[in-house]
Design a protein that fits this description.
The protein is of the alpha+beta class. The protein has 20 helices and 30 strands. A 7-stranded mixed beta sheet has the order 29-26-25-24-27-28-30, with helices on one face. Strands 7-9-13-14-8 form a 5-stranded mixed beta sheet. The N terminus and C terminus are likely disordered.
């Protein structure tokens, strides 16, 4: 008899509503693999409430004789009114939990505890319970159930003052979405502004007083245009939760927002490493600091029991909200540093410059009434050379600036319960998505090309396509992760566990240019140096490559050029007339499994030789290797460059 944890919902016979259970213990009479339908039931299907005292209550659906193979026990959650009795119940104190344990042992003949905890949950329920040693919160649990809302500021940003500081005009472009009901209505797809959608929220009634007191929401005096489902998600402290609105009905009715103006992670890291000192802080309940005009708040309704509520602040879950927040942050740090939504980083090449920039940032924040706080244990406005920001640890005090993953984040990702489930081969789609998202983040920060994990990318693409195409995606469905994807994930896990420092800076140019091209029949690669061709290779596609897509043929030509012609360490310029190949080389991965395998080979060779590939796009008329793919033999080297058919200038992605 083994006790494991699962996420489940209880369906009470007293009414049609459902409520999440904070902690649910699953007792299996035999292994989950042997249980028919067990995997599906274990992750989000209805689970009926059993009795263990031999009696039977109407609607309970099972008794002592039907305990095997599956029943559940809820602990740490108040029992609903009218559901008393001696059935498997609920308890917050140690004595009640100990009593439940004894009764379980009397029925089941033994109790073993599944001893594995998720990383985003902090609970003292079991650690202080001596009669239940080793019991911990475990995978798949609704960790946010019962958590109070995090402290929310009542401060509100002065939107007009912030707009007056916007020298570029990007924030003023989206400001009407908070202040002008006419502009807001114009953002709707034709005919959808009337709304009429109402989706009730579950378990949010207990937060009504908190939402009122901090001014985040108020009771609706009339029916909102959109009354949507609200829910809470646990914050990283594990003790409090944040409010999120499921604004998909509103998002579907409106046009897509403009660009966030969020910097690419690579550019963010490169800009930080060009400085020596930094001050970081983050906005307190940042989205809630942006007020919404009363005439617009009717679109941000929360479906509640009894009386709906209206959000008076920027809605977390609305597709336009990140764009508005990021553009506002860019105004505050313009010419001073960088912003990543609610994270502010003020930079300086010297200590004096950094302190001057901090003083300017403080004046801007005070003028716009933006409330900020220090990150972690740092003192507010403290300038540092080593710090952690947006999951990246920077060391600007070293002789050569460097960065790596935040060690705390890396440890959580490597040893998390989701990673264990995925590597075992059977995990929920939600667990795989969380692990894969961390893998993408880790490869970006550690500068590991994702093409090296072609099988993992391929499986993630198939799973994502299936979820997007489903009418109602089942994220708690158990999926089988292929062995090849698990091997690649294990290799990445080893790299993240080591968490090596990545040295910044731009390598010196090799002084040569690699030209590669492919036609439907042949490929060619030539190396240019000092205005002449100094070496080259060409060939004919054979076997399966002869029938490959032209993009794959262009990638094969590029790989042959790198492997056969590039030997000097440094930044190697590459001229390619295929945009798909240029993009794949630039970001280190492709949407094609076959292209990723080919690209992985060329990048491994380049890495061993100390080469950093810099791809440029050129039009087909300016591709100097083109004639050598159409029957022209290679010249004797060194050779003069042929005249291009087009005088267009190569487009440099960097």
């Amino acid at each position: 008899m083994a006790v494991t944890w699962t996420r489940a919902w209880w369906r009470w016979t007293g009414g049609p509503t459902t409520r999440p259970v904070e902690r649910v213990v699953r007792v299996d009479g035999r292994s989950r693999a042997d249980e028919p339908g067990g995997e599906r039931q274990a992750f989000g299907r209805w689970v009926k409430r059993p009795r263990v005292d031999g009696g039977k209550r109407r609607g309970d659906g099972c008794d002592r004789r039907s305990l095997s193979p599956t029943w559940v026990l809820a602990v740490g959650c108040p029992q609903p009114a009218g559901r008393g009795g001696r059935g498997v119940g609920v308890g917050r104190d140690a004595s009640r939990l100990a009593g439940l344990q004894r009764r379980l042992q009397g029925i089941a003949g033994g109790l073993a505890v599944y001893d594995e905890a998720p990383d985003n949950v902090s609970s003292s329920t079991y650690s202080s319970t001596p009669s239940l040693p080793g019991c911990r919160v475990a995978p798949g649990m609704r960790a946010d159930a019962g958590l109070p809302l995090a402290r929310v500021t009542s401060n509100r940003v002065d939107l007009r003052a912030l707009a007056a500081m916007d020298g570029v005009g990007r924030f003023r472009e989206v400001l009407p979405m908070l202040m002008d009901p006419v502009a807001f209505a114009e953002a709707f797809v034709s005919g959808d502004a009337a709304g009429g959608c109402r989706v009730p929220s579950r378990g949010m009634e207990r937060h009504r007083a908190t939402l009122r007191s901090c001014g985040v929401a108020s009771d609706a005096r009339s029916r909102p245009a959109f009354a949507m489902k609200a829910f809470t998600t646990p914050k990283k402290d594990g003790r409090t939760a944040r409010l999120v609105l499921d604004a998909r009905p509103l998002n579907d009715a409106m046009r897509r927002p403009p660009s966030m103006d969020l910097p690419r992670l690579r550019d963010f890291i490169a800009e930080v490493e060009r400085h020596r000192f930094a001050m970081q802080c983050d906005g307190v309940s940042y989205f809630y600091q942006f007020p919404v005009d009363a005439s617009i708040s009717r679109y941000f309704g929360i479906g509640m029991k009894g009386c709906d509520m209206l959000l008076n602040v920027l809605c977390m879950g609305w597709s336009w909200a990140p764009c508005i927040a990021q553009r506002a942050s860019n105004v505050l740090v313009r010419d001073l540093g960088l912003a990543w939504v609610d994270n502010f980083l003020v930079l300086g090449g010297t200590l004096d410059e950094a302190e001057r920039n901090v003083a300017v940032f403080r004046k801007r924040a005070q003028a716009a009434r933006v409330e900020v706080r220090a990150e972690g244990d740092d003192a507010l406005w403290q300038v540092r050379s080593r710090f952690v920001c947006v999951g990246v640890e920077f060391d600007l005090a070293a002789e050569t600036q460097r960065h790596r993953l935040d060690p705390a984040w890396a440890e959580r990702w490597v040893d998390g319960s989701g990673m264990t489930a995925v590597l075992s081969g059977r995990a929920t789609a939600r667990q795989f998505a969380e692990v894969f998202g961390g893998a993408v983040w880790a490869t970006d920060i550690l500068a590991v090309p994702r093409c090296h994990f072609a099988a993992l990318l391929s499986f993630a693409g198939r799973l994502g396509g299936r979820m997007v195409g489903a009418a109602a995606p089942v994220w708690d469905e158990v999926v089988d992760v292929p062995p090849s994807a698990r091997r690649e994930l294990g290799a990445l896990r080893k790299i993240v566990r080591e968490n090596p420092w990545v040295v910044g800076g731009v390598p010196e140019d090799t002084g040569s240019v690699l030209w590669t091209d492919a036609s439907s029949r042949a490929w060619a690669a030539l190396l240019e140096a000092e205005g002449r061709f100094v070496d080259g290779r060409q060939g004919v596609f054979a076997g399966p490559d002869a029938d490959a897509h032209i993009n794959l043929k262009e990638m094969l030509a590029f790989a042959e050029g790198v492997v056969r012609l590039c030997w000097a360490p440094g930044a190697q310029r590459c001229r390619i007339d295929n945009a798909a190949v240029v993009g794949a080389v630039a970001k280190g991965s492709s949407s094609s499994y076959a292209a990723n395998r080919v690209l992985s080979r060329s990048l491994r060779v380049a890495g061993r030789r100390g080469i950093v590939l810099r791809p440029d796009w050129v039009p087909s008329g300016g591709q100097l290797a083109d004639p050598y793919t159409r029957g022209t033999s290679l010249p004797r080297f060194p050779a003069q460059l042929p005249l291009p058919r087009s005088r267009a200038t190569p487009f440099d992605l960097f």
